[in-house]
Amino acid sequence: MNEDELKRPKHPAIPKLAEDLRQGKMSRRDFLRTSTLLGMSAAASYSLIGKITGNPLVAPAHAGDNGKMGGRLRVAMQVQEMQDPATFDWVERSNLSRHIVEYLTCTGADNVTRPYLAREWEASEDLREWTFHLRQGIKWHNGDDFIADDVVFNFERWLDPATGSPNMSLFSAMTEEVNGERRMIDGAVEKVDDYTVKLRMRTGQLAIPENLFNYPTAIVHRDFDGDLSANPNGTGPYTLAEHRVGSRAVLQRADRPYWGEDLDDPYIGGPIYLDEIVYIDVGEDGSSHVAALQGGQADAVYEFDIDNLRMAEDMDDAHIVTVDSATCTVMRMHVNEPPFDDKRVRQALLKAIDIPAYNRLMFNDEGEHGEHHHVHPIHPDYYQLPEMEQDIEGARALLEEAGYGDGLEISIDVGNVGGPTDQQMAELWAQHLRAINVDLRINMMPSSRYWEIWTETPLGATQWVHRPLGTMVLSLAYRSGAAWNETNYANPEFDEIMDQAESILDADERSEVLRQAMEILQEDAVICQPVWAPRFTAAKDYVKNFPGQPTLYHIFHKVWIDD
């Protein structure tokens, strides 16, 4: 990085962002996040922060630069099918594939998005055109060159309704509605040359680089036939040696040098240490994961909940990683099916809730209060709304008005996809609802069964993982017609507000607009989301640089075994 790079920012908005930083109108971390999204290198952004403030942020070090080569890492995690990354709906599936197929960008634990398969990008002033320049010299495992055709192929698959990918809503600005069906707009994806791809949007979009690290956006080969487990052709450092659903999966170092070994990047650059990564399926419950770590069956675990924290803390040869994350469970309703098609009923079900009780009783006040709109205080576009207070009399009046003065019976499907806390949330809600003469019955099922019906059940408890921006999760979950819109919510006013929010650079200005979307979700009572749960993972002490990524994405490039 040199002075010329500092003097020539890639986007015309960066000088304004730098001036806002200078005047204290923007935090250093918001400047870092936004400037890198707009195409400024992380190194240049860190350096400019130091020059402006005299108090630089510390860039992540190349963890593991002195690590030992070789070794095998055993991780307790569900081993699921691994067919089409574009339709993945579990992070665990993507963790199996993440070291085989890779992404155009990478968002690190510092919330900064960096180049990955793309070496750099730039955006037009109005954020409606994004140009991605791909790295050259990358080979697929079958020997083919990684080229622009691969990227174009992926976008065309994602934005094809027949694929059924949630990326359709994530990149909604690249689509339009024709005869009642959402499809890609003409010219949305253009191959400029073999290593350059241009994306075009209907509206400005700030988070395109960030969206490209969402777990269903892994880049597959241009000849991909729909089943990665059957043909695991990728660009990553590992290949698939074994895959038995419900049992184990084995990733082995590819028999060629990794293309990223010479990269100056703290997350994906430098040497790859591990020879083998083994995922062991020990069941769904967090206690079985901790027990596997405790008994020497695993070297690390994917996740466990607060109920198993004490058992993990009792281990004297392991370390716990607490993850600050916007992961949560939402108890959500089909707003177009009775009795939930009556907004008064939905509002009554939320008014009955004592929000502080969830954090106090379930998480010993280790979590954060929710506000029934699915945007976390960690999000840079969060806007704090007045906390919703329990109102039993108001809830009863709404039910009376809706014709349910004599009471109401409803049922919620729970698969504990977020652990036993899902069931605890439903049980606590049932307690609160008794005060308004609503009988909430809890239908427990295996998590695998729940994921088969999660968009179809009229009332269910679904875990949503962390996304770096509030706009990202709201677009994925609540836009009209989105593949992951499990509430069947369709509100044109909400969609228009999201279009506007996604085009705004300034975090404070964007939060002012996103506030309107949050208020709409509260007013329409689409979801019950009263708490944000803490997340925990752990590894044995001999596992070095085990990451605590907010979405629990596994990036093990820097992990090594000190045996």
Describe this structure in words.
- The structure is a single chain.
- With 563 residues, the chain is of the alpha+beta class.
- It has 4 domains: 3-53, no CATH class; 82-217, Dipeptide-binding Protein, Domain 1 (Dipeptide-binding Protein, domain 1); 238-322 and 535-561, D-Maltodextrin-Binding Protein, domain 2; 328-532, Dipeptide-binding Protein, Domain 3 (Dipeptide-binding Protein, domain 3, Roll), CATH 3.10.105.
- 29% of the residues lie in helices and 20% in strands.
- It has 18 helices and 24 strands.
- The protein has a 7-stranded mixed beta sheet with strand order 10-11-12-1-13-22-14. Strands 18-17-19-15-20 form a 5-stranded mixed beta sheet.
- Helix 17 (492-501) runs antiparallel to helix 18 (507-524).
- Mean pLDDT is 91; it is low at 1-8.
Short description:
The chain has 563 residues and is of the alpha+beta class. The protein contains 18 helices and 24 strands.
